[in-house]
Amino acid sequence: MKDLRIGVIGSGGRGGLAAHAHRPGEGSRIVACCDIREAALARNHERYGEDVFTTKDYRELLEQGVDAVFVCTPDFLHEEHALAALEAGAAVYLEKPEEAEREPQPLGIREDTSPRQGPEPKALLQVQRVPRT
Fold it and tell me: Are the C-beta atoms of residues 36 and 57 closer than 8 Å to each other?
């Protein structure tokens, strides 16, 4: 079985949840991680192996041809990162917190009318809303 190649945008902090998906030889493998902190990137090498690709720029991560992406960045960056991953052809997993003062809103997906150079985006976007604590 070929492993699903997974990237993690925001691999420090909440990005630790992606470790549950790291099952080399069993169907999934973390192959690329992005975070703005050097310490987080160093931990990624310890956790996922020396061959894991690390970067501070999520666009470089998406250029690695990952099959799926965990978006674990601060909430205000979710839309930018999720849309970029979908446009790169990756499936996306992210959690969105509930906002106490307003109704939950779906992640905005804009229509892309430009000619595509790469693969069509996958139609998978899992948004799990979790209560703020």
Answer: no
Angle at 96 between CA 126 and CA 57, to 5 degrees: 85
Predicted confidence (pLDDT) per residue in 76-98, tens digit: 898 899 999 999 999 999 876 65
Q: How far apart (Å, rounded) are the C-alpha atoms in residues 48 and 56?
A: 17
The model carries a pTM of 0.76
d(CA 132, CA 125): 21
* Residue (of 89, 105, 87, 86) closest to 97 by Cα position: 105
CATH number of the domain at 4-130, out of 3.40.50.720, 2.60.40.420, 3.20.20.150, 3.40.50.2300?
A: 3.40.50.720
